[in-house]
């Protein structure tokens, strides 16, 4: 047998029998190459018996998640391994255990899920897919329950702003950024097609089949197609407490009129034109239906008749060129959102149609002597047409233009890195039936400093000013038209430290972070649901001061991984010293929250457990006993096992959520699901 044949045979065996990491694959490839070279130099004369063939190389992914160490902005990352280990399905599942993040969940699978961080509110959180910003017409907020993690490489959350060479200007404008990056397919030598099919079922009619198809068309062209269908009856039991203290009389009720279904399809094309020259294109479509059970009170267990139909479609592309001294990026997106809200009791039929075109360009270059410069500019045009009950003769037609431009300078030398930028924002609205339209313009600065105290210790500091203009949903939705609603202006200060530690002899490694922050928000916009989750009440607070601390610990001991986080947050209303609510905690903001994850991987069954602990909150402006929501602890347990079969790999998973059947509410009068279970299977071939 020739050495080349031996090389091919060993490669085939490795490809069929093992599922190691990309680093191990690279090591195996180098070992085989070295073996082939050594045999060629030896006087065996065997290689001359066959014709030498060019072999395919193992592909190594170039996707790199943001650094959690070498950054002045606190950054948390959940990669695909953690996503799969926790059985996370929705984008909201990936962020609810991150430090400093508050997830507002309006109950069950179909409940609206929004994210806010450090008391700034959900509108300060920019949500991006592959770096391209997401916008949502419904309620003016991005519902994280609409986005699934089936084809994600990682999810990252950066306070202040993500610190990367090529960012769109809109990412600089946000108070914090949540990004989900689509996984680029990787193939073994000679492999061209990969299929992943799975299904999950669970309590209360939960069913979710999924399909992933990855195709390698050539060395430069690859694609992925992912589809998922999700449905749930959502008719879970809950405990109705007759007093806010949850200590007096109660009864067990059941959620009704809370069914949901959602179908999603996502296609991606990865084209490598040349080394350092790539184009990634995504096409996404989602259609869904939600029944809203409404708020729960003593005399009204459920409000029936409210439901919504949603449709979302967008296409986006990202062209990136990377050279030794400069990088450039061009992104474009076109999106369409259709939302229909019906209430048979109130005889209401509302439709909302939003169209948006978005274009962004970024450029980064190194100037020498440790200096680098970045420029970025975004332009978008969004149109919202809303039609309401014809008997009320109300129609709203508004178009918004948004221009943002930023210039950034970076100095990096040895242990020190200093970064500063200045962002210009210009937003104008044109309303069809109103002559005078609002216009918003602002310059906002950012400056950060990072210093390495040693090989394992990093200190950081940043200051940022963020300017947030009220959204379509806050300004123009029917029944909620506070024409005098003012933009928010937030000043953010953060100081923190990261400590790495490792001990090779005991396979022990880990990372500790500690950050203290102060946010001062002028004219803060606070949103509360009214009698329906679809209609909201908006108002400005004159001044809010937010003080807090975030701490995380991430430890790996052999096959045991432990992650713990804790957050303290005092978000105080300092608008009017003569008001009875002066110095009170703002609504739905816990002072204490935290979580823990533990996972043990072994050759039998991988075991994981997670806990989320949230202190008491207030759903009214006054911090009184009548407005207080009790603290809660939500514990889950999961297990999974993979089997290597002749034609692929079969993975079985099972989990129990809310193991202790804790009865709690994140939003007042919207009870969360108690104990529930899920089982699933995924087959890859």
What does this molecule look like?
- The chain is mainly beta.
- The protein contains six helices and 35 strands.
- The strands form six sheets. The chain has a 22-stranded antiparallel barrel. A five-stranded mixed sheet has the order 1-6-7-4-5. Strands 2-3 form a two-stranded antiparallel ribbon.
- A hairpin with a 2-residue loop joins β33 (665-667) and β34.
Outline the fold blueprint.
Layout: H1 3-17, H2 22-41, E1 75-79, H3 80-86, H4 91-95, E2 101-105, E3 113-117, E4 125-129, E5 132-133, E6 152-159, H5 169-173, E7 176-182, E8 193-202, E9 206-216, E10 221-232, E11 237-241, E12 250-254, E13 260-274, E14 277-292, E15 306-322, E16 326-343, E17 348-368, E18 371-387, E19 395-413, E20 416-431, E21 439-452, E22 457-468, H6 472-476, E23 488-503, E24 508-529, E25 536-557, E26 560-573, E27 592-600, E28 606-614, E29 617-618, E30 628-629, E31 632-644, E32 649-657, E33 665-667, E34 670-671, E35 676-684
